[in-house]
Amino acid sequence: MTLGNGIGDGYLSASLRRLGLVVGGSLSRGLDVRLDAGASVEDIAVGSFVTVQGRRQRYFGVVTDLELRAVDDSLRHFPPVRGTAESADGLITDVMAGTMAYGQLSVMPSMTAPTEGSGMAASEAAKTIPEHFAPVYAASQADIDAVFSVQRETAFALGSPQGMEAASVRLDLEELAKRSVGVFGASGSGKTFLARMLLAGLVKDGDAVSLVFDMESEYGWQGQDNDRRRQVKGLKQLFPSRVVTFTLDEASSRRRGITPDGVVRIGYDEIEPADIEVLRDLLNLSEVAAATAWNLERHYGSGQWLRSFLPLSGADVGELANEIGVNLAALQTLHRRLSAWGRFGFLADQGEGSGSAGGIIENLQHGNHVVLEFGQYGRNTAAYVLVSNLLTRRIHETWVRRKELADGGQGDEPRPLVIFIEEAHKFLTPEVASQTIFGSIARELRKYNVTLMIVDQRPSGIDSEVMSQLGTRLSCALNDDRDMNAVLMGARDAGQLRGVLSRLDGKQQALVFGHAVPMPVVVRPRDYDESFYADMAIAGAPAGLASLAENDADRMQREIDELFPPE
Amino acid sequence: MTDTQAGRRVGEVTVSHTERVEAQCYRLHSAPPLGSLLRIGSPPVYAVVREIRNEPLDPSRPLAPRGAGLESEDEIYAANPQLSAMLTTRFTATIVGHRAGPVIRQGLPAQPPNLHAFVFVCDPSETAQFAGQLGCLRLLLADRSPGADSALAGFLRLAAGAASDAREFLLRVGRTLAAELSSEPQRLQALLREMAI
Q1: Which residues form the domain of B166?
Q2: CATH code, A172-265+352-553
């Protein structure tokens, strides 16, 4: 038997739940689907998946809005009286519901597949819409798996789509790392867990290496699940052999019982006037005051200016202002603000031999993922921005050099590198984004194999140019309209996604769209628990589950064994 | 004459139009209920009782009251036996379908029933069989007077009573009516209320 539209009944099994018919719409605005009398609008949530059986193609789409409609306007004024099922009023309500008054879905068609195939395998982006009166069904688990299945080994199970707990949404990590990624969400919405899972996925299967500027020290060794009041494993615990941790604050690491693999010291000689420009807002400096740093560099010489400038007394600063011809008040302000950096224990007179970034670069080049914990300095945004900007600049320079050498046939391509930053709205603002290395990385895309993973709660504060360069965006619930608009900026179908985004649950739900997923999807991220740890275990490596609870003594023994293999 | 099918014979056609028939009952005050499904003549034509009139046989001789001093209405007829010959019951029915061979078609027949065609009241099983399709609703809805809607409601109520699942039948009919009456929700509500059992 075939149905009127030429679809074999092999696919249309009885398990498919018909929702309604396409009665109008457009590709840009989405399809209008009139619900059948038997389908309740209450059973369908925004963000659910549906399939539309066109004459020649099957469409896969997402519900972006729900509407109650009435055939005749007088029903609004004289609605039927609700009654028990057996009563006349009950009959009236039952007849009216779904006929005179009915539910309507807005469906954004995203993917199409030929009707001959099975399900949504071999689907591609929708460029047409189905004909009038095409039947619409709730998407089956097989459809969802087919659309979101990634055949490659780098597929990463992120979670399940809304209302389909058994189905799985997979991200292609290789694609994810090719372009910059944004993870957004209000505080407490679960973005840290989402980001930690993505990082774990990258460490386990990704081609890329990552460098995490870990502001709150929650990604490296272990993190905190504030809702359940428990500790969760960090990257180092999950992947002891692939992740190295550096710290800016050795004392904090020791207090937490962690032995970092390295300590980062930044030399005063490494700080450039450009770094001061980036910090202008955070240091509350006027434009003039920030610009005097350039005069100082000209006066003292590159690499010397900060070391020479900071020890000056008040009177010396006055003389210096005269000597180099800058505004005294501006120079005094700069001196006062920068003097506070004396408290930064990670600043040393001189950086280490190969530069502060040397150890980190070496590890990254060897394919290790690096987490830099900020310890107490994570609470100081200026310190975070200073260090992350400075180190990233050094690392980026190395990658650019190696990439250019590789292009010239001398040496290998540098590994794809994902740089992970938090609180980006504080230093990727429209005013300074262009001056930071992060702004450049976002803009130059993957030219030098370096991309960003930005985790932030106020995306509206981030430069729109940077936002628009984010290939894949994952957004948990946001409270502010401007933030939602910022997340959707430049996205296809932004208008329709807006409704979905604004209705995300406060926790445990994220809208994922962009480069790494075939279509926008609302995901309930999987739990970050034992089963996730088990999935992250690397087959054949000693860093399986057994070594997760590795303590210092075990770790020392393991490192000794690695260096001096037992006969 | 086709009298093989079940059903009570109630009268004969006195006037027939494309869309409706008028019939006269054999017995005074014995009209089929408003909304009843009728089978008329051969080949059978189906119609739904739309209006019933009890009146003098000769319209030029109007009735005068005869019961002053009598105890009951029955005594009037007992005291005036000629009345049953002078009075009659007539009814009008809207044609809704016809039988073509074994198939029941909803809609108008090519010819209206013959004069003097016998009129039968369909039994529940034939009513249920006829009401399996709902194409005739349009014909019944075309008459927009409240009396016509009551006749329609009566027909659907009888059909529901004859259906295997009355509630399911009423819901199905209700949804068809809703499509027909999409611009008249108040009329739809009144109709639904009247046909609910």
Answers
A1: 8-195
A2: 3.40.50.300
Tell me the longest C-alpha to C-alpha distance in chain B. Answer: 57
- State whether residue B165 sits within 8 Å of chain A by CB: no
How buried is residue A312: exposed, middle or buried, by Cβ count under 10 Å (0-12/13-18/19+)? Answer: middle
- Which of A71, A91, A93, A102 is the best substitution to test chain B (most B C-beta atoms within 10 A)? A91
In a domain? residue B120: yes
The residue in chain A having the minimum alpha-carbon distance to the alpha carbon of residue B175 is A95
Q: How far is B178 from chain A (nearest CA, A)?
A: 6
In a domain, B2, yes or no: no
The residue ranges of every structural domain in chain A are 18-148, 172-265+352-553, 268-344
ipTM: 0.82
Instruction: Determine, for residues A100 and B188 on separate chains, whether the beta-carbon distance falls below 8 Å.
Output: yes
- The alpha-carbon gap from B165 to the nearest alpha carbon of chain A, in Å, equals 13
Which phi and psi (to 5°) does residue A246 adopt?
A: -115, 160
Cβ proximity of A543 and A559 under 8 Å: no
A435 CA to centre of own chain:
22
- The SS3 assignment for A309 reads helix
Task: Give the DSSP per-residue string, A147-158.
Answer: HH---STTEEEE
Q: Do B170 and A71 touch (CB under 8 A)?
A: no
Mean pLDDT of A366-372: 87
Q: Is the pTM of this model over 0.95?
A: no
- The verdict on residue B3 lying in a domain is no
**pLDDT > 70: what percent of chain A?**
88
β-strands A243-247, A262-263 pairing:
parallel
Helical packing angle, A481-488 and A494-502, nearest 10°: 140
The reply to whether residue B196 touches residue A80, judged by beta carbons under 8 angstroms, is no
Residue pLDDT, tens place only, A187-219? 888 888 888 888 888 888 767 888 988 888 888
Q: Tell me, yes or no, if B186 comes closer than 8 A to chain A by beta carbon.
A: yes
DSSP states of B32-97 as a string? PPTT-EEEETTTTEEEEEEEEEEEESSTTS------TT-SSHHHHHHH-TTHHHHEEEEEEEEEEE
Q: Do A71 and B196 touch (CB under 8 A)?
A: no
- Compute the nearest-CA separation of B160 from chain A (Å): 13
Residue B191 lies in a domain: yes
Residue B191 to chain A, least CA–CA distance (Å)? 9
Partner-chain contact B174 A75, CB within 8 Å: no
